[in-house]
Design the sequence.
């Protein structure tokens, strides 16, 4: 009897973990996102996941999911990076290719409105914005690199060097 | 705590109703198979229920990638009236401060990533286009006396992006129009020339709606919300939570001598100062002395 009770207690304790381990998958909805070593904003990045990639959810800690990404990398993704909805293939965006991992049915149902194709039409309809769109492209290219940001944070006593939660 | 839920709930109901009607009429098809979803329900109730859920979920608002493309067009319209500053060093510095507070936010990454741009204008203003395209004028930078103040200002804009203030007011209406316009064809891989024309016009409407906010602001509620986020994110990044408070005090002083831009579009500074003060005390954030390294690099990049 005592043994049965013990087994039950152990099973009850394992139950939530077992439910998650059963294979809950979510899909990355950003062009790319950082997998971090811990469930905090400034933890080191251990991997990068891309649009359409499915990650296995291991557990949840506040705003972060502990995930298994492709290649068996374990780490943490912010909750705003993934979705349990299907993601649409984005015609004309570099992110579009990754969506092939999702089933065609799911992509079809995701629906789509504003994408590069529509922007192309909008630019054609508003030729006076041609130069302005080149400035947007330039703005988009000016990404703050990971190492550049880490150096900036550390020199300024910010991020992990500060008091990030 | 996120503001985006309020609109989403209202529209989800409408989308669900639309989805059910469409399915009842057997007009909604899957692109892959071309079979009416109505048949799928008859065949397998569970599959049908899943389809309804997916249809509803997929259409309750703009997706992250749509938001990005709307943000690009809004930004293009801003660039039609404002030029970027010539100094690359200044742009790079502001981008790094922005990246620090964005990474500390409740949405650390967006579809295409946060981007920051200094505009060559004397007026005091800052603006966040959907998807994370953030603009700050030279006049606004002139009012900042240190990096922690600038961090507060940029974190306020990041707050608007996170709460999706630029889209909240217009998106359900626009999305409904798109669904109505595309009907069963919305699941196709490519749009027809007519659909593209209509979507381009629709994008123009959305852009117009968001762009107006640059001059008019978002109103008292959203501005207070963005201020509360700003204090939290700046502090989480390691900045002095008082940075935004000090900036607002400076703005109050300057408001007596200047007009237009930020002064016209943002609510009463005294209210904002109170909101910021409340947030600091509620979150029990301790003030921090700005680090020497930050003071030096701010002077070199902004005041140099």
Sequence:
């Amino acid at each position: 009897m005592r043994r049965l009770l013990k087994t039950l207690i152990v099973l009850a304790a394992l139950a939530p973990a077992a439910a998650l381990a059963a294979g809950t998958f979510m899909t990355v909805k950003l062009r790319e996102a950082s997998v971090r070593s811990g469930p905090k904003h400034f933890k080191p990045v251990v991997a990068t996941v891309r649009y359409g990639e499915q990650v296995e959810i291991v557990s949840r800690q506040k705003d972060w999911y502990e995930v298994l990404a492709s290649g068996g990398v374990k780490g943490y993704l912010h909750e705003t990076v993934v979705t349990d909805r299907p993601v649409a293939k984005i015609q004309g965006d570099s992110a579009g290719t990754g969506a092939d991992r999702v089933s065609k049915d799911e992509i079809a149902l995701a629906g789509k409105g504003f994408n590069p194709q529509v922007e192309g039409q909008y630019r054609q309809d508003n030729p006076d914005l041609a130069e302005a769109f080149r400035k947007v492209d330039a703005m988009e290219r000016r990404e703050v690199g990971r190492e550049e940001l880490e150096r900036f944070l550390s020199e300024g006593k910010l991020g992990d060097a500060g008091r990030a939660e | 705590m996120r503001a985006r839920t309020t609109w989403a709930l209202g529209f989800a109901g409408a989308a669900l109703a639309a989805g059910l009607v469409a399915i009842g009429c057997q007009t909604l098809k899957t692109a892959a198979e071309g079979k009416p979803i109505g048949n799928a329900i008859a065949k397998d109730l569970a599959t049908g229920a899943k389809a309804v859920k997916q249809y509803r979920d997929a259409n309750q608002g703009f997706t992250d990638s749509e938001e990005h493309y709307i943000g690009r067009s809004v930004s293009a319209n801003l660039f039609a009236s404002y030029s970027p500053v010539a100094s690359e060093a200044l742009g790079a510095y502001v981008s790094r401060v922005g990246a620090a507070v964005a990474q500390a936010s409740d949405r650390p990454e967006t579809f295409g990533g946060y981007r920051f741009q200094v505009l060559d204008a004397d007026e005091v203003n800052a603006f966040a286009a959907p998807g994370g395209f953030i603009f700050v004028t030279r006049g606004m930078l002139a009012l900042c006396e240190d990096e922690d103040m600038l961090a507060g200002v940029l974190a306020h804009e990041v707050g608007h992006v996170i709460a999706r203030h630029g889209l909240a007011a217009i998106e359900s209406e626009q999305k409904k129009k798109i669904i109505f316009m595309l009907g069963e064809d919305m699941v196709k891989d490519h749009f027809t020339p007519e659909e593209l024309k209509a979507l381009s016009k629709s994008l123009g409407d959305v852009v117009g709606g968001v762009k107006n906010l640059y001059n008019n602001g978002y109103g008292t509620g959203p501005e207070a919300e963005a201020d509360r986020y700003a204090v939290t994110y700046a502090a989480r990044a390691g900045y002095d939570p008082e940075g935004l408070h000090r900036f607002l005090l400076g703005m109050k002083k300057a408001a007596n001598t200047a007009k237009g831009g930020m002064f016209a579009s943002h609510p009463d500074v005294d209210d904002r100062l109170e909101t910021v003060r409340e947030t600091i005390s509620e979150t029990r954030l301790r003030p921090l002395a700005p680090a020497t390294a930050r003071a030096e690099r701010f002077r070199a990049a902004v005041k140099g």
